[in-house]
Amino acid sequence: MTTRQLSSSLRPVLTAMVAALLPTLAWAQVYPTKRIRIVVGSSAGGGLDFVARIVGHKLSAALGQPIIIDNRPGAAASPSSGPASCIISPLARASQYGADDIFCAKLEESVMTAKMTAPTLRAPITLFLKAVWPGKPCTAIRWHRWRFIGMALATSAFVATASAQPQQTYPDRPIRFVVPLATGGATDIAARLFGQKLADAFGQQVVIDNRPGAGGLIGAELAAKASPDGYTLMMVSSSHTVLPSLHKKLPYDIVNDFAPVTMLIATPFLLLVHPSVPANSVKDLLALAKAKPGQINYASGGNGSAAHIAAESFKSVTGINVVHLPYKGTAPALIGLLAGEAGLAFYTISATLQHVKAGRLRALATTDEKRSPSLPDLPTVAEAGVPGFEASTWVGVAAPAGTPKSIIAKLHGEFTRILKLPEVKERLAALGFKDKGNTTPEEFGTIIKNEVVRWSKVLKESGAKVD
User: pLDDT grade, residue 138 (50/70/90)?
Assistant: First the structure.
């Protein structure tokens, strides 16, 4: 058969299949949320195995989930155990045909197990079969070798159409924005600012879901295991890239379990002390800390938080010995500093400027490379006696791995547009935030990988650990 004849044979099949499937694609909004196992009831190398592997590859690319080909010779058409399996079974009397001539028997009955949400998927599969074999039941049907290719192409077209449908209407329900840190910090402030603007743009509610604990690990695990449909997003910060260096094992993979969307903002810290600490400059603080090693505490929002890492970097560069006092979030840590429980801390301008101006805290320097417009008379740490020292935290957005690229692109475009709004620019400047929204998903992914390596080296040199 020539290529032209093959194309002519496939065209009506594909057209009928797509037309039949379009009304029943609601299932694709939730399916699949985990890997899929295709149980092949024959040995590897035969026609059935050949089709399963072609279709499996296309399914994996389209659905964003791993596809496992599980050859089980002699398994016949019995349902497989487990909620994430499907079966391609040979004919009961397959022995009378050649291995390359048989595709399936009663696929609409065996492709889903009873434990899955079968009704939502069985209808489109049944229509799919009717489109491929109009007027015939899916029973003993003979196939020639070239038709395996046609079947694979038809199936991949079906999957592509199904996965594209919900993306065209995204979003059609509320979006959850997981913030893995407590309220009051830069990450939470950014989430609420951008979440509101995203809700205005999409016409859907954006729910801020604070899940603090373990330096962001709890919230990150929740987001990593969420359905990759674009309805769960996570605000990630620089502390996200520190966790692999502080924990021997994480319940998720920081690179492979997340799909980067974009970096949004970056913000430096202020080096702050409680008014009771007899230090009016960075040099005064260093002299005091060296005279009283281990007697001054510094506060942070928890192990692996940006404030924790900034302080550890400062300790490493200056050689002072100050003791970490971790709190369960930025807000409790700030309260502790204001109460004098801790003597010093590194905090963002947005969280502490009002306290500095009211005299409740004393700012010794900013960790940026340049002075802050909000405090133009305040020197940088480098100017104040620690050459080359800089520290900041960044905030961005990620989604669960497997989120469709079209949704990632749509989100990236919206966040980029929001950053250009005059009212947003004004608000960011007032908070001391720098616009970092010109970062593509690919660039953001590279930054995350590089930060993991960077902090691993810094923490190893400083000796920082979970307290």
Answer: very low
Contacts of 284 (CB under 8 A, 6+ apart): 278, 364
Cα atoms in the 13 Å half-sphere on the side-chain side of 105: 14
Band (pLDDT 50/70/90 cuts) for residue 149 is very low
User: In this predicted structure, which of 85-89, 191-195, 287-291 has the lowest mean pLDDT?
Assistant: 85-89
pLDDT of residue 44: 62
Give the CATH H-level superfamily of domain 175-262+395-462: Bordetella uptake gene, domain 1 (3.40.190.150)
* Displacement of CA 29 from its chain's centroid (Å): 18
For residues 461 and 446, give the distance between their C-alpha atoms in angstroms, rounded to a whole number: 23
- The Cα–Cα gap between 422 and 337 comes to 35
**Inter-CA distances, 315 with 209, 287, 322, 417, Å:** 34, 13, 7, 39
Q: Which residue has the higher pLDDT, 467 or 148?
A: 467
Contact between 275 and 410 under an 8 Å Cβ cutoff? The reply is: no
Q: How far apart are CA 36 and CA 18, in angstroms?
A: 23
Residue with tokens 């692996």: 304
Strands 362-366 and 206-210, by their bridges, are: unpaired
Asked if the model's pLDDT at residue 126 lies above 50, the reply is: no
Residues in the chain, overall count: 467
Cβ burial of 138 (10 Å; 0-12, 13-18, 19+) is buried
What is the token pair recorded at 401?
Answer: 């791995």
Q: Which CATH architecture has domain 267-392?
A: 3-Layer(aba) Sandwich (3.40)
What the block records as the tokens of 39 is 């149980």
Euclidean distance between CA atoms 386 and 383, whole angstroms:
7
Helices 186-202 & 422-431 angle (0-180, nearest 10): 170
Q: What is the pTM of this model?
A: 0.59
| pLDDT band at residue 444 using 50, 70 and 90 as cut-offs | very high
- Count each helix (H run) and each strand (E run) in the chain, helices first: 15, 13
* Alpha-carbon torsion (410, 413, 415, 421), positive or negative: negative
User: What local confidence, expressed as pLDDT, does residue 184 receive?
Assistant: 78
Q: What is the mean pLDDT of residues 73-85?
A: 40
Q: Which helix (H) or strand (E) holds 88?
A: strand 85-88
User: For residues 295 and 304, what is the distance between their CA atoms, to the nearest angstrom?
Assistant: 22
As given in the structure block, the two tokens for residue 295 are: 């007697």
